[in-house]
Each structure stands twice: as C-alpha cells, then as structure tokens.
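Milestone 3.1: sequence recovery, worked example.
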C-alpha cells in the first residue's frame, strides 16, 4: 500500500447515451441510465481527480484528494461518493463558482463530449477557473500531514509552487496547463498529442516541457488515444501501446492512465513499464461504464502485484 494525493477537479456528471455520433443538424436520441429516470436529475461522480483517485483506491492505496466544491446538494453528493470510495476528503474546500450540471454525451463507439450546462449569461470560463483555483489554495503543512509518496497534479491550484519542497515525492503532472505562473514541480509530464499540437508544443515538446518544469523534469509522455503514445526526454525515446478493448465509455480513461503511471513509478517501475501499466488502467476504464465508480477489488491491479506474479 502507498499514499497518493491527487490535485484536480471533482464533479457530478450526468451521462447521456446517444444512439448515433454527434453531428451538426442531426436529431439524436439520448438514453439516461434507467436508475436515473425516477428522480431527475441524478448522475455519477466525475472530474479528473475523482477518476484518478477511484483507480488508486481500487488498487488498494490510501488516497487524499485536493479540490473545491460548492456548498450545495451537488457538493454533498460529491463528498458522499468520494467517502464511499474511501478517499480522504479533508482538503475538499468550498467554492462559490456558478452552479450548473456537467453533461457527458457518450456516442455508440464510447467517445464522449463534455459540456457544462448553466443559467448565467455572464459566465466567464477564465474567472470561474480562477475562483476554483483560489478556493483550493494549497497549504503545504496540510499536504505534509498526509505524507504522500506520489502526487498527481491534474490541476494547478493557487500556491502550487510550494509542492517543489517535496522533491522526494514522485510527481506526475498534466500538461499543458494554461494557468501556470511558475515552474511546475513534476518529474513526469503527460499530455495528449492533440492538445500539444493545438498549442504549438508538439515539435520540440521536451524543450517546451523543460521550460515549464525546470531541471526536475525527467520524462514526458505524449498520448495518442487507442494508438498508445511516446515517452521521451532529450536523449531517449520509447513507444508504448494500448491494449485492444471494446470501448464502452472513454470518460476518465486519460485520468486512469495518469494514475497508473504514477502508481507504477512509486512502486519501483521504470518509465516504460509505468506507461504500459497506465495504458492497462486507461483501457480498463474505457471498457467499463463510468469513470469514478466503486468496482470489484482488483479491477485495477497494482503494478507491484502484477510484477510479483510475473516473477
């Protein structure tokens, strides 16, 4: 068992299962889960930090989440679901951001589109994000109370630079981060090919990543969905592959991948082993319904357990 702290968003998602792919001008049918029909609107736990935490808990680890929620019914649902998973919520702060509903549109092939439904015509995405980051301001003393062995930086909350004092704690970060104001304290950065290409960071990616993190950075992983991806630094480059599956719901697969990478690194894997381990976790999530569910123990196997069985 290891101890992990996950920094990132938590949410309450409403999945809608579409009868055909999204297409401009089309008329679609959307099926809500049958158990939701009697009391609308229900939903399920979501958000990047919840998704990653659920995998780590299922693998048998102690997990604390660092995030912010509203003090309302949705916030209460999120807290209750995280506690049901066994996640430490003592650092879940209160935010006054605009209320709304996160909708997950899931196509027949399992791909998903996420949108936030709200009723404020003046809602500003940048301001909303800044409010959440400030509400979840990081207190290094509280982080040290938990004594994490691994940290997943899915989002950068206010004062995130204080985490650089934990240089002995393996840290994996999401990249790129639009709100970055100082060096990211990360050993490994993970970013999708599409996101990096859209921001002009794919060519010379490690050089750009080094500017974001400084000399602490050891590797970056560029993911490419079902095709797998690449792992590289200034001197070495490796490929990893994603197991073939029947995709049901891609929601949270990337978060599961990142959690698996971090878990394996903390357990002693090298970066290539960690990427393959993360790919297994991500594929497992994509093959199931939901992204932060209570699942049978061992659905996400620890790298330590897998490694021991291989020997």
């Amino acid at each position: 068992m290891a101890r992990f702290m996950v920094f990132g968003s938590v949410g309450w998602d409403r999945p809608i299962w579409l009868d055909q792919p999204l297409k401009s001008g089309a008329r679609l049918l959307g099926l809500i889960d049958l158990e939701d029909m009697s009391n609308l609107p229900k939903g399920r736990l979501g958000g990047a930090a919840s998704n990653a935490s659920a995998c780590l808990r299922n693998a048998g680890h102690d997990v604390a989440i660092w995030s912010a929620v509203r003090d309302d019914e949705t916030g209460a649902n999120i807290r209750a679901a995280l506690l049901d998973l066994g996640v430490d919520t003592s650092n879940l702060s209160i935010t006054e951001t605009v209320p709304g509903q996160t909708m997950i549109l899931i196509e027949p092939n399992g791909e998903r589109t996420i949108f936030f439904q709200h009723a404020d015509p003046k809602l500003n995405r940048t301001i909303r994000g800044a409010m959440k980051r400030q509400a979840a301001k990081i207190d290094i003393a509280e982080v040290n109370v938990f004594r994490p062995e691994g940290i997943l930086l899915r989002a950068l909350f206010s004062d995130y630079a204080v985490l650089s004092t934990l240089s002995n704690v393996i840290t994996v970060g999401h990249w790129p981060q639009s709100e970055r104001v100082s060096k990211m304290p990360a050993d490994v950065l993970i970013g999708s090919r599409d996101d990096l290409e859209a921001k002009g960071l794919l060519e010379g990616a490690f050089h750009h990543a080094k500017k974001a993190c400084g000399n602490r950075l050891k590797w970056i992983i560029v993911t490419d969905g079902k095709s797998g991806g690449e792992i590289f630094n200034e001197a070495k480059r490796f490929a990893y592959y994603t197991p073939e599956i029947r995709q049901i719901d891609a929601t949270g697969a990337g978060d599961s991948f990142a959690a698996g990478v971090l878990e394996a690194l903390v357990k002693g894997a090298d970066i290539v082993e960690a990427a393959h381990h993360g790919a297994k976790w991500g594929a497992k999530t994509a093959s199931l319904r939901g992204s932060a569910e209570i699942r049978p123990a061992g659905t996400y196997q620890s790298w330590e357990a897998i490694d021991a069985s291989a020997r």
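The chain has a mean pLDDT of 90. DSSP finds nine helices and 14 strands in the chain.
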